[in-house]
Amino acid sequence: MYAAVITSSDAPPAYCAHPAPVAHDENEMVVEVLAAGLHHLTRAKAQGTHYSSAGEFPRVPGADGVVRDAAGRLRYAVLDDTNLGTFAERTVIDVRRSVVLPDGIDPVRIAAAMNPGMASWIALRRRISFREGQRVLVLGATGSAGRMAVQIAKRFGAAQVFAAGRDATRLKTALDLGADRTLTFDEISAAADVDVVLDFVWGAPAADAMLPILTARADRSAPLEWVQIGSIAGATAPIPSVALRASRLQILGSGIGSVSARDMIAELPELAAAVTDGDIDVQARAVPLSRVAEAWNEKASERTVFVP
Ligand SMILES: NC(=O)c1ccc[n+]([C@@H]2O[C@H](COP(=O)([O-])OP(=O)(O)OC[C@H]3O[C@@H](n4cnc5c(N)ncnc54)[C@H](OP(=O)(O)O)[C@@H]3O)[C@@H](O)[C@H]2O)c1
């Protein structure tokens, strides 16, 4: 079979012949890959820079995807750290980390949406006790995960959603997705009275946003849950100590490890149904897997999805 094979952390994968996959125990299954997304997680795992990756080479990237099993059923599968990911014509999945999808779904849409969609879905459902009527600020609302966070927060009953980012023009599209207001980082204090921050940015922009938000709160003793989900602007953030003393700020993270794989998998069917029903807007571009070397570092506003 053919697969994308990465041999070092600083070079894109090459499309080449690869040994056929083999299942090793009763939980494993060899499947045909239909579509697999190129997420930040996928790149970081492939390059060995993600905390959940052993970083061994050579490896076939691909952290998740839509596959067809031997019985002809479509499944969405999330792979554990492995040297044989989903950027291949066939791969091995653990059936316990997969869900059966209804017939007639669009594999490209599902493959594009599940990773960025899970980011806020899991945070709101499994990491905090989010309640209808709460107010949410999304930091990094123009990206795939941020756009979905706006929609998912509204779907879960948020009374108000602020969509924040660095590009005022790109932010405008968040209004079509249900955001009540868009804000650049300079205007962030307008979201002072939110209950939850879904932060995909971290780094200096998140740290710089904290004091303007906290000091402008009508009631500083009202709880504010700041959920650290992504770190696109920096792995570390210089948080001012006063932010933790002068307000009831709680910073917590949501991702692989802070929520069990079992709890994550349990949320997959409902998210897949929301994507399939068209309730969640998805921006995806299908790219033949044979073009992986060129597309690996291409900038695209849509999520790249490889189709073997
Ligand atoms: N923990 C989880 O469960 C989970 C799941 C999925 C994703 N994530 C993480 O969430 C983050 C976003 O993922 P994504 O799929 O939405 O990525 P994406 O589609 O590439 O979007 C990136 C977003 O970050 C913004 N951004 C980039 N650099 C920035 C900077 N220096 N300052 C401020 N904003 C910046 C972009 O704004 P512009 O539009 O202005 O460029 C855009 O809104 C990544 O770190 C990813 O690894 C975490």
From TrEMBL:
GO molecular function terms noted in the UniProt entry: oxidoreductase activity
This protein's name: NADPH:quinone reductase-like Zn-dependent oxidoreductase
Originating organism: Nocardia tenerifensis
Superkingdom of source: Bacteria
Segments forming domain Enoyl reductase (ER): 8-307
